[in-house]
Request: fold
Amino acid sequence: MRVAFLGLGTMGWPQAANLCAAGHELTVWTRDAGKAERFAHEHGATAAGSPKEAVAEAGVAITMLPDSPQVEEVLDDAEPPEGSLVVDMSTIRPSASRALAERLGERGVGFLDAPVTGSRPKAEDGTLTIMVGGPAADLERARPLLDAMGKLVVHAGPSGHGSMVKLINNTLAAVNAAGLAEGITLARAAGVDLDALGEVVGSGSGSSAMLELKAGPMREGDFEPLFKLEHMLKDVRHCLAEARALSLELTVAGAAESLYAAADTEGFGGQDFAAVIRSVERD
Reply:
């Protein structure tokens, strides 16, 4: 399949690499032209000088960008041709996904919101979970590409529902990680053996994926970014905004947002979201 891949960041690079490995013909673009050239050289792809050049001959365009303003700007520049399909794998607000679907649909372009979860390691080995919003027929068209990047592809419903599921999932992860940070901080202050704590929590009802993934980095102060704290903060804020639009107040998510915002203010935004423990320690 001829594919334009727009965005080669922490997640986009390995996702695009897996598409190349699966035999798809990729044209890649990212704001750093040298990075696009490096990717093309390493993976047998073609580097494009602009989004429009990237999508010119592609049946499917995939965007993997920081947020909706970047997605909208890139797609405006790209002008995907009639009959093509855009698959946005960024994490943006559901309302923005629905607006993009409507705007592109008026030009005869299909659209799927298909954000991912699993962080960089699963992007590298092609085992991401991908949640998709949009028409079932467009999902089937994109499925060979999604299957090359993910282990589990879930049709979440109509346009915007993939984005909504992603925001809820990430907010739950943020809340769990913040709770873990508080537990570790309390245990340290009380002089509790952290290995004993981990063994008990891991075998009981307090266990979670965050315990497995983030307890070690929190204990060791190793915040090499697998998923940046600033991105987690953005997702939680999007979730809170969507909830308010539905006349809901998410009290627990709001408390987590405050902790991540404090860590971001303290300079940890570019590090892994396990660094939320730094704001807990300072409270």
About this structure: Strands lie at 2-6, 25-29, 46-47, 60-63, 85-88, 110-113, 116-117, 128-133, 150-157.
